[in-house]
Amino acid sequence: MQIPSISIETINLPNGFSFDLLRLDQTDRLISGNKWFKLLPNLSKLNLGDLVASFGGPHSNHIHALAYAAQNLGLKSVGFIRGEPQSTPTLEDAKACGMQLIFIDRDTYREKPTQSLADQYQLINPYWIPEGGSNHSAVEGCASIWHQACLQNRVYDQVYVAVGSGGTLAGLVAGAPDGVELIGLSALGSLADLNERVSELLTQAGHLQTEQSVQWSIEVALQQRYGKVTAELAATQVRAQILGLLLDPIYTLRVFHYLNRQYLKHRLTGKRLLMVHTGGLQGLRAQQERINRLANEFVGPLPF
Predict the structure, then answer these.
(1) Which of 92, 93, 148, 221 gets the highest tally of CB atoms within 10 A of its CB?
(2) pTM score, two decimals?
């Protein structure tokens, strides 16, 4: 599977804020954004007919991309889905790609006992990929993002990317050129254990912290729990769409909102900025109506 051309788009907003956007959402309509770079290094190790298994929620970009990638590579796939059985556009797509969906309760999901699940559901030699797809292979895959032609001969002071399971940030740190600062923005509503998680992923991939010449940190994009879309975020999403910028509501929307807030506080003046669009637009299908409703409820100025 050959990766298509990825571009960098310069975004000029009405408030005067300008930044570059790395369009990883252009990788593939279904293996979208960072999932391409996370999944293909894992799946390329497997043989035709092998079984791959992973975890995700009912709107998971990871599950969606995994099902499609497995189908295209001739692999069998199983997705363990958090919560009660339900139907979402994401899960319907996954089923259409041949993925077996198994719904498990939240306590079991939290523990993720891979061996007992494999035994219970009689899975034969499954290759387990963690929730979100972040492991040492994913780190190496995301490090290769820097090899894309559109990034050659470009220099940035800061690169911003959403952080969920940590693999994309770890990969960008591992592959980054000297002098650039990587800033991850938590989509979880808190820092949780993200710093430790990214450090551990870097270590697993053989990138010792003492070897890093790249500065990186993680900030909280917005103190709202994971997946929560407020009226202000919804209004930001709709306004961005009007301006021709399509973002996913869970990850890149929070990064975009954060950057605009920082710009208005004069904290980004004079810096060459790159925002990474990590894809995930498939999740919009189940949320667009709610986003439009919330946006109409918002009262107040937007940051752009």
Answers:
(1) 221
(2) 0.95
Domains and CATH numbers, the chain: 8-29+135-297 (3.40.50.1100), 35-133 (3.40.50.1100)
Q: Please name which of 251, 224, 248, 241 lies closest in space to residue 304, comparing C-alpha atoms.
A: 241
Nearest CA-CA partner of 58 in 96, 38, 32, 87: 87
Identify which of 2, 141, 127, 132 has the alpha carbon closest to the alpha carbon of residue 53: 127
pLDDT, tens digit, 9 for 90 and up, residues 210-257:
455 789 999 999 998 998 999 999 999 999 999 999 999 999 999 999
**120 DSSP assignment:** H
The Cα–Cα gap between 168 and 159 comes to 12
Q: What are phi and psi of 23, to 5 degrees?
A: -85, 70
| In 46-106, beta strands by DSSP E | 51-56, 76-82, 100-104
Judged by phi (left if over 0) then psi (alpha if -120 to 50, else beta), residue 290 lies in alpha
- 87: confidence class by pLDDT, cuts 50, 70, 90: very high
Strands 181-186 and 51-56: unpaired
Q: Do 93 and 59 form a contact (C-beta atoms < 8 A)?
A: no
- CA 252 from chain center: how many Å? 8
Q: What is the mean pLDDT of residues 264-292?
A: 94
- pLDDT tens digits along 19-43: 999 999 999 888 889 999 999 999 9
Residue indicated by tokens 């004069």: 266
> Binning pLDDT at 50, 70 and 90, where does residue 209 land?
low
Euclidean distance between CA atoms 246 and 231, whole angstroms: 17
In this model, does residue 123 exceed pLDDT 70? yes
Residue 70 DSSP SS3: helix
Sequence-distant (6+) residues with CB within 8 A of 98 are 67, 70, 71, 76, 77
